[in-house]
């Protein structure tokens, strides 16, 4: 099904929801959810983009750092397709701290 082996299972909290070690991780999750709902990309495209991250980035990134890298890749690739209605709406909500992942 793709991806790398040997990293263990995807982290899941006791209630079955994704756990977040930091606020920025929850923001990345929310951003991905919103972009999927808006039709910017689907889950398969996100997974594919994660798998296309450069090996040095993939191997050194945390779970949500991979998501963020994949989202950046997809938004860059699809830029003109996304349309102006997405950009202004998400910008102020995310703020500069989204890019300060540990």
Supply database-style keywords.
Cyclin A, domain 1, 102 residues, disordered C terminus, mainly alpha
**Total strand segments:** 0
User: Low-confidence segments, ≥5 residues, pLDDT <50?
Assistant: 88-102
Globally, the shape reads globular
Order of helices and strands: HHHHH
CATH H-level superfamily of the domain at 23-93: Nitrile hydratase, beta subunit
Radius of gyration: 14 Å
Structural class: mainly alpha
Average predicted confidence as pLDDT: 79
The CATH C-level name of the domain at 23-93 is Mainly Alpha
- The end-to-end distance, rounded to whole angstroms, is 28 Å
Characterise this structure.
With 102 residues, the chain is mostly helical. The chain has a domain at 23-93: Nitrile hydratase, beta subunit (Cyclin A, domain 1, Orthogonal Bundle). The protein contains 5 helices and no strands.
Tell me briefly what this model is.
The chain has helices spanning 23-37, 43-51, 55-60, 63-82, 87-94. With 102 residues, it is an all-alpha fold.
Topology:
Blueprint: H1 23-37, H2 43-51, H3 55-60, H4 63-82, H5 87-94
């Amino acid at each position: 099904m793709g991806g790398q082996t040997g990293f263990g299972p995807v982290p899941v909290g006791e209630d079955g929801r994704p756990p977040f070690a930091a606020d920025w991780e929850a923001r990345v999750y929310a951003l991905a959810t919103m972009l999927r709902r808006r039709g910017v990309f689907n889950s398969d495209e996100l997974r594919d983009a994660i798998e296309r991250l450069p090996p040095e980035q993939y191997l050194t990134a945390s779970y949500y750092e991979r998501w963020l890298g994949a989202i950046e890749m997809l938004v860059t690739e699809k830029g003109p397709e996304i349309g102006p209605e997405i950009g202004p709406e998400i910008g102020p909500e995310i703020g500069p701290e989204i890019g300060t992942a540990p």
